Amino acid sequence: MNRIAFINVNIFDGTGADPYMGEILVEDNRITRVSKHGDSVNASGAHIIDGRGRFIMPGMTEAHTHFSWNDQPSLSAIQFMPPEEHILWCVRVAKRYLEMGFTSALGAAAAKPRLDVVLRNAINAGEFPGPRYLAGSQEITTLGGLGDNTLPHMPFRELNFGEVVSGPEEMRRAARMFIKYGVDQLKINLSGEYIAGIPAEVSPFSEEEIAMLAAEAKRAGKRVAAHARSSESVKQCVRHGLELVFHASFADEEALDMLEANKDKHFVAPGIGWLVSTLHHAEKWGITKEVATRMGYARELEVASDTLTKMHKRGIRILPGGDYGFAWMPHATNARDLEYFVKYIGMTPKEALLSATKLGGELMMQPDSIGQLAEGYYADIVLVDGNPLEDLKVLQDPEKISLVMKDGELIKSCYDMKAPEGAVHVAEKGNGPRRDEGVTKAVQATVH
Question: Fewest beta carbons within 10 Å, which of 35, 337, 363, 435?
């Protein structure tokens, strides 16, 4: 049995409790003991990692991931990457997320029909490192909707960013196709997007088309995610039971009332980083603040800040993530969302961390096994050189992510796991440390 003991660590356990000094014992891929306030775990025979007071927390969840978005400035540029290179891109990106402390992720949409499914299957098979992953479909859109990039002289669906449908029967065919491919959730674009030239407050799908998608998903036991910026699209999510609501910027009081009445069913991943970055960080790609303001993003950020603040006060579940993978918000900068949750939504730093940890376990449909540092949970663990509750920006610095463990396996570590001369062997609880002259059964890790 592989045993690792974290000692002298400041534990943020993801339950909502304040951090406390303690120790954590990992055996194989599970946390088997968490001690606090001077108690010790039984570290006999374990590799020992001395955190020296560092902050330790559960692995984070990214709730709105596009692994196949390849840090380009347009949907067309993302889509035109050939499939062979595209899956290799996804492999590399998955590792980057893991190394930044995101041990789980939900696929919001893939740029090609099977990219997410192939990626998930390969991660699960242990072929390469990546977060626990729920695979999404391509974006299902309608003629003229967000993701319909077809041209009059080139109406080839293979070159299109989204799967274009018109009418309930075409929706049925698309849903069944993606279900056949093995996705975990289906994705529909229920509203527009300014950068695509479609107002965010537009809601292009009919009730009959949405009802068909919901029915096919329910029949197959799948969830549905929706790009839903407009107020009407948020109401459509609630009416049709689409659990995963992305954006929700313009939700009015009626939409908020509907979400609150069903808050145990829905998750909201607003993607607020997209609004901030497009407004303030896209000038290099020709989108100055003035241009972004004309598009509508300044107004949307202002409205979304008010909407999401109200949503948070109502107890509706809001999680980080959304649309990272564009040129001006590249992959692995996702932890910015936590800073924005405090600045624009009024969360406390603790609430922001809980949105990425405890709520992440709920989003991933494993509330009793991921998202917390507790006995019986999977050993998805992040050790941070700094205190995110004092400065959330430390989670944006790869140098501050000292150690990442997923499923009991060390993925990234700045710790030297070799046994130095005279290594300390931690004996049975209560007996104190002793020195072994011969072969040690425990390894005292030292920080570089």
Answer: 435
